[in-house]
Amino acid sequence: MLNRDRWKEILEVLTSNWFRTLLTAFGVFWGIFILIVLLAAGKGLENGIRSDFGDIATNTMFMWTRRTTKPFEGLPKDRRFEFKRSDVQAIRDNVPHLRFISPRNQLGGFNGGGNNVVRGLQAGAYNVYGDYPEIINQDPMTVTSGRFINYNDLEENRKVAVIGLGVKNDLYSKDEEVLGTYIKIQGVNFMVVGTYKKNSSNGGEEAQKEIFVPFTAFSQAFNMGETVGWMAITAEDGHSISVLKEDIISLMKQNHKVHPEDNRAVGYFDLYQQYNRVESLFAGIRWIAIIVGTFVLLSGIIGVSNIMLIVVKERTKEIGIRRALGESPISIKKQILMESIFLTLISGMTGIIFGALAIYGINALLDSVGPVDMFLNPSVSLQVVIGALTVLVIAGLLAGFLPANAAIKVRPIEALRTE
Known about the structure:
This protein is an alpha+beta fold. It has helices at 4-16, 18-53, 85-94, 135-138, 151-155, 165-171, 215-221, 241-255, 271-314, 316-324, 329-369, 382-408, 412-417, and strands spanning 60-65, 83-84, 98-107, 117-119, 122-124, 127-131, 142-146, 160-164, 182-185, 188-197, 210-214, 227-228, 230-235, 266-270. 53% of the residues lie in helices and 17% in strands. Helix 1 (4-16) crosses helix 11, helix 2 packs across helix 11 (329-369) and helix 9 crosses helix 11. A hairpin with a 2-residue loop joins strand 9 (182-185) and strand 10. The chain contains 13 helices and 14 strands.
């Protein structure tokens, strides 16, 4: 490997017909370049879609009520029913492996509301949620000042509120103190005890324009009684909410006298199921990138092998002389293999470098034009680069194997007769 004459000979062989060498190298270069770019594009798509989930607990389902579609136990179909706070406790008592159960009521959004929040001369329309403290673990947010709602607020029916930075910017002047002030929600005063900020990818600007108040105070202020509008339910790690949801829905049907086969009475959205579908999509994209890149790379490797066969044929007389002078077949075979590996490795490393430059350029373009929906920070890991280099070394060996075998099969006397 450290023989200077051997490396000098390799360079002379590869540069003797530089145009042919360049075309051969381009096949390997293009294959590894396509592989790197495809994997980076897949990663960019994966990052973009993942950012849409934000920091939301993905092992979560959301559940609400709808009209019944079948009569049951003397009750007609097309009947409305509502979840109650007792349903929350029933789920806790009867369904194991649940981490968080957050009942929720809401003003604004799909419930309408117009300008439902007023402070002095300022007014705005915002989503107002009556929540339990656990919701911050299911829909994470950063408390930027003050605190979030707690169980003391729930037990004492405190009319306190945590507002988003978007609400603060709308209702307050720039340097005005927020904590301890009051806002009026549907005519009821709530004291602001905290402000929050959500990840911009999790709902964008609208996610900063929400208000959270204790569930009990919300129910009391807006005459909701024991009604629960909907629930966010998260399973423990190691247990799928997709599996547990059947028991949860069956329990709710039983509690509210809904036909067991009425599949529309209880509405739900299984975030974990959707997330797993996205994960499967990511895996599929990665495999497609690997397969396409590998086939393109394989075509380049075949080109290297063909060129090396031509090189061996052109050097038949030279090989015969070297054999006649006593050079061993292993030495000749090593020479051919080193030439193949060198050509493949240099071509591949050039492809990796240009692929990295292309990824850098794409990221620079994204930074200049701003975030693009569903595409963020395309990149490849160091493990991918190391894996690609390993593949190149193996590919170089394979590409040189047949030409090397052909070289050592040449009989010296026949090689010397070759014109």
